[in-house]
Amino acid sequence: MRKRIRDYGIIIGKGETGPLNKITDVKGVTVGHTTVDTPDHKTGVTVILPCEDNPFSNKLTAAAYIHNGFGKSLGLVQIEELGTLETPIALTNTLNVGKVHDALVDYMVERCEREGGDGHLHKPGGGRV
Known about the structure:
With 129 residues, the chain is of the alpha+beta class. Helix content is 19%, strand content 18%.
C-alpha cells in the first residue's frame, strides 16, 4: 500500500481528516477522471465538482496559489481578483488546457440553461444564457 505524508508523521493543517483522508470526504465534492485515447488526443482529464449546487449561481469562496509556475492555467486571475470559484476544476496536460476550458464553458452554459440561468453567463460567440 502506498504511504501518505501523514504516515511519516507530517500533519498539514489543523483540521481533522475525513474517514478516507480524500477530497471526496468533503460533503458534495465529487471527482471524475477519464483517459482520452483517440488518433488526435492522448491525454487524461480529471474534473472536480466542488459542490452539488451550480457553482456559477452559488459562487464558492476560493483562492489560488502557484507553487510551480511551469504549467498552463485558466481562471486563476479571476479567482485572485474575485475570490470566488464559478466552475468545476479540471486538470489536464498543457496542450489540452484550451480544449478542456471549452468543454467546461459548454458544460456550465448547458447547466445554467437547464436550471433557468441568471442571464449573466455568456456563450462563446456572444449568446446569453
